[in-house]
Design a protein that fits this description.
With 164 residues, the protein is α+β, with helices and mostly antiparallel strands. 28% of the residues lie in helices and 23% in strands. It has a six-stranded antiparallel beta sheet with strand order 1-6-7-8-4-3, with no helix packed on it. The chain has a two-stranded antiparallel sheet with strand order 2-5. Helix 1 packs antiparallel against helix 2.
Length: 164
Amino acid sequence: MPRQIKYPVRALALVSLISGTALADDAAMLRCRSITDSTARLACYDAIAITPAPPGAPAAAKTVPDQATQQATQRQQFGLENTPQPGAPPVLDAIESSIPGPFEGWRGNARFQLANGQVWQVTDGSSAFENLNNPKVKIRRGALGAFYLEIEGTNRSPRVRRLQ
């Protein structure tokens, strides 16, 4: 004889209430999405009733980080990301920092540690002699996944890749 599982009536009622509300909202969203006139579509979305969560239900977690948090994360990950994922926020085109202390230029596979802690390496085999102190730098995104190091006070931009 199969074992029967009994659910408390309150829990079953709560689940049916929540799922029914979700289905109603989905149907309303689909109906609004099919409207071609933008003003009418906006009015349809505005008319969708937002039902408060039942008492005792956990508050919904914030799923979309604010813009400042997204930008901070993008600055930290700049140069390390592979290809952007569909639907992901737009990637940064450049970051700015500085090279702390005296800067005498680069050659071959020179490495630079920026003031923000990132480590970048020259990859194009170029070299240059410069005599700068704490130069401001900008690393910009180029074509086909390339990155270029622009150093204030110079007119050269070696190709670089991020190591750390």
